[in-house]
Amino acid sequence: MRSKTPAAVYSCPRQDYAGVAGGYADMRRSSAILGSAVFLVLAPGAVAGYIPWLLSRWHFGTPFFGFAWLRILGVLLIAAALPVLLDSFARFAVQGVGTPAPPLPTQHLVVTGFFRYVRNPMYIAVASVIFGQGLLFGSRSVLRYGVVVCVAFFLFVVLYEEPALLRTFGAEYGAYRARVPRWIPRLRPWTPS
């Protein structure tokens, strides 16, 4: 039987941590925080940081179409995306008691914070950082790379992640998926019933 959890964080049907005694639950959460931090550096750090650097060397090229304001737009995209990415990673570790890495998934379905507006805020944030760098540095290769990353994210979400979440969380994920869009954020946050 499932324990009652806060309305915005659902229990995973395969495991119940509500009755775990002692420090095991704290140890599990600490491991999730560490795992999420490592994954943050390895995955988004490489995809949104290292590879764009390899492509552009963070060299300022000519602004696209001669419009310097596109550089400002790039900075704004990066500045808006980083807090979303960090908040989402933190929620996976603290509320979901797991990581965004598929081999170490969360134990709870996280539907708080930016997840109340859109189902994939981490992917959107990573893409925004990449496109922001492309605009900031005037780099066509970084923008092309961003398109490739978006296609890869789309395929991963549709072919692997959503079916896995549906298998793991069942009707809870189904209700969330029916009310919160995959890519285009809602204007008002979704509140679980």
Record the SSE blueprint.
Blueprint: E1 9-11, H1 24-56, H2 69-94, E2 108-110, H3 121-137, H4 140-169, H5 171-179
Helix pairs in contact: 1-2, 1-3, 1-4, 2-3, 3-4, 4-5
Give your account of this protein's structure.
With 193 residues, this protein is mainly α. The chain has one domain (22-179): Four Helix Bundle (Hemerythrin (Met), subunit A) (Up-down Bundle), CATH 1.20.120. Helix content is 60%, strand content 3%. It is built from five helices and two strands; from the N terminus they run βααβααα. It has a two-stranded antiparallel ribbon with strand order 1-2. Helix 1 (24-56) runs parallel beside helix 3 (121-137), helix 2 (69-94) runs antiparallel to helix 3 and helix 3 runs antiparallel to helix 4 (140-169). The radius of gyration is 18 Å and the shape is globular. The model is unreliable at 1-22 (pLDDT under 50).
